[in-house]
């Protein structure tokens, strides 16, 4: 059964690869890596092919996918808009990129932006299209291709890493644009998240983007939950921040500065006989560290499940941007299409050789992934978000960090996340930084904390009392979770100021203004604070938020973060809503 599914050549390749394990790179060389994240990624990569035969035996291909599954989708091979036009339901005028849709819209090449820079409408449409891909099995089809290519060794740990993923992302984008030709596969630039004290607290891990996880590490909220994986799990799994790290600016700048192609299209997994010594700055190593940082299905430990997680495609779209940027700045047009690292059997799997057939993409050869048609006709990249001393990043999901000499855009932190280290910056998304935690303030009462020592909103105030302003009259503002006495009903026309019935020691509260609009509570710092009750007590009240917006505790990690309370994505999925009630969202 296994032999029939994989085919004789593929099966023989796996056997030979396992026999060659002894001459492959030793995991011990990974101990020379500059940090634990790169070291672990290196070791995982080195151990991948050791485990491949066992995995294939225990996990036959799912959902009827076969070795040649990609060959029956000719529209995905297109390298211009005229070729793909009928697939979009349009008509071509015969020119290379001439394509007109039934509504009269001219199809343009995709403009790939950082995911946080697109409009809410486009993000919702994009996620809706991907959800439809899942519902119609197109997503499983494309995810299985990556699974197969990984197992056969032609897409990772060698010179074809960039060219294979370039073609792969293009095919994924065509599947998206079949649903809406105005969309694009946008990129996730994790260098925007790496400056955060806890990158796992990024706004990316909210319901507006990629969802949050529960105690079982299942992604149970957001537009991609539930999401059955190729292995049959009901949800994507993630363990963000428990291992690895996000990409850093230095990782990318080093790659862009290289003049030798072997340092870009690198021999990432050479044998001991290879004449090239490993450089841990080769992009495939920090790329692996990001996979490990997302964890779960994305982790680099074999078996490969990375494409199960929707984040995979947005991340690899950014990896492809690095390759494109390097080519456009360091190579001529002729060099882009013809220059390729030498075919060295001691340095890489022969599946990475220049004229080897791209795994799963016959008749494409590895060198074909360098054609200029990709950027001429199919897509282009928008620059990374930037800001200056006077201009912001242009996205409500980013803030401008001006604490250094060079201002930079950084991802905002989700409610409940760690906001330490960025004083006076608008770091918190839909929340406010209080005691290094992003706190969601009430939408019914704007709370101003004025204190000689900071008062936590969930703790009893002992030395200072927060000033409450603008309390709506439609509901009496509750100053405690469960008041000991009833709050008197405010009448339409009070004849006099409401006075407390007992002597105060710190603050006397009085009601001013007509309650037909707003009741304003002001401070008179001469007596002790009291509730506006018929029989106020002399005890200093707790100040809490509405239970739906209680300040989350920060445990220093990515666990038990609260779900964003406002401005949620307009995208909804019936199955997601029904299933999410069965799981408690406590993490990520």
Automatic annotation (TrEMBL):
<protein>
    <recommendedName>
        <fullName>Tyrosinase copper-binding domain-containing protein</fullName>
    </recommendedName>
</protein>
<dbReference type="InterPro" id="IPR050316">
    <property type="entry name" value="Tyrosinase/Hemocyanin"/>
</dbReference>
<keyword id="KW-0186">Copper</keyword>
<dbReference type="InterPro" id="IPR002227">
    <property type="entry name" value="Tyrosinase_Cu-bd"/>
</dbReference>
<feature type="compositionally biased region" description="Polar residues">
    <location>
        <begin position="493"/>
        <end position="531"/>
    </location>
</feature>
<feature type="compositionally biased region" description="Low complexity">
    <location>
        <begin position="463"/>
        <end position="475"/>
    </location>
</feature>
<feature type="compositionally biased region" description="Low complexity">
    <location>
        <begin position="538"/>
        <end position="553"/>
    </location>
</feature>
<feature type="compositionally biased region" description="Polar residues">
    <location>
        <begin position="559"/>
        <end position="573"/>
    </location>
</feature>
<dbReference type="InterPro" id="IPR008922">
    <property type="entry name" value="Di-copper_centre_dom_sf"/>
</dbReference>
<keyword id="KW-0479">Metal-binding</keyword>
<dbReference type="GO" id="GO:0046872">
    <property type="term" value="F:metal ion binding"/>
</dbReference>
<feature type="signal peptide">
    <location>
        <begin position="1"/>
        <end position="24"/>
    </location>
</feature>
<feature type="domain" description="Tyrosinase copper-binding">
    <location>
        <begin position="137"/>
        <end position="327"/>
    </location>
</feature>
<keyword id="KW-0732">Signal</keyword>
<dbReference type="Pfam" id="PF00264">
    <property type="entry name" value="Tyrosinase"/>
</dbReference>
<feature type="region of interest" description="Disordered">
    <location>
        <begin position="462"/>
        <end position="588"/>
    </location>
</feature>
<dbReference type="GO" id="GO:0016491">
    <property type="term" value="F:oxidoreductase activity"/>
</dbReference>
